[in-house]
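hey so i finally got around to running the thing on that chain from the lab meeting. sorry it took forever, my laptop kept dying and i had to restart like 3 times. anyway pasting the input first so we r on the same page abt which one it is
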Amino acid sequence: IRDTSVFVKLRPAWEDLRSYLTAKGRKRFEVYVCTMAERDYALEIWRLLDPEANLISLNNLSDRVVCVKAGSKKSLQHVFRDGGCHPKMAMVIDDRLQVWDEKDQHRVHVVPAYAPYYAPQAEMANAVPVLCVARNVACNVRGGFFRLV
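ok and heres what got predicted. didnt touch it at all, straight out
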């Protein structure tokens, strides 16, 4: 539909990150999405990112995709309102630090914003794709957690 259609270009290495997170059927992380997008848009984009519902099951989707109103701050307390995870166990990947509540900002791994239409060369300028770096950070965070336990 011309008035409502959107062309989506996935960030390079998304498949690699998704593959790491699902670990061949064994999830390494519980995935939540916190976005300032409208709920219908967020759910549709997530359906494209996780078509087989390996990262977030269809039963958990409504609780795990959290939409924050414009002008509000993203908060781990709000994301984990169901008690499924403690905010101290969270790792956040986002392209903007300032949208997060100050008490959660130290958990945010900031990645450059993805702008495939305005600066397509920017993503390719990195020797290692941004999402591969994020995967490596997730691996280190996970490894650090299990070393502490």
